[in-house]
Fold this sequence. Notes:
Layout: E1 4-9, H1 11-16, E2 17-27, H2 31-38, E3 42-43, E4 48-52, E5 55-59, E6 62-63, E7 80-83, H3 86-99, E8 102-111, E9 114-124, H4 127-149
Amino acid sequence: MVELKTVTINRKAYHDYHILETLEAGIALTGTEIKSIRAGRVNIRDAYARPQGGELWLHNAHIAPYQPGSYYNHEPNRPRKLLLHRRQIDELAGMVTQKGLTLVPLKLYIKRGIAKLELGVARGKKLHDKREALARRETEREIERALRRR
Length: 150
């Protein structure tokens, strides 16, 4: 069994987007970045992935500087290369450009000592979709409460 240590989950993505498909990608990191990720000092809430020059890049992911890193430290918001097979990158690039979809990071975790990112191919939700989801969740909670009281 493979051991996964979840570092962070992007809950905002599940609220703002319909997730159509997910896939796992590696991330090219520096030494201080992986140490900061292992310490849990990362934020992927406003992050997104974009194809550029035949490669896939993660933008806006904030990995806090590693305290003992001194002058070897990294830039917190720098673009980071995502590691996927060429065929996967081409397929995702086609989906994003043609169908108006976007790539959002859903979860960052450590698998066998290596940082991995779960990417989601997503379509944006409209405001009424968000309200409908909130209303549905609230009614489910009410039903659960009523069943517990009995």
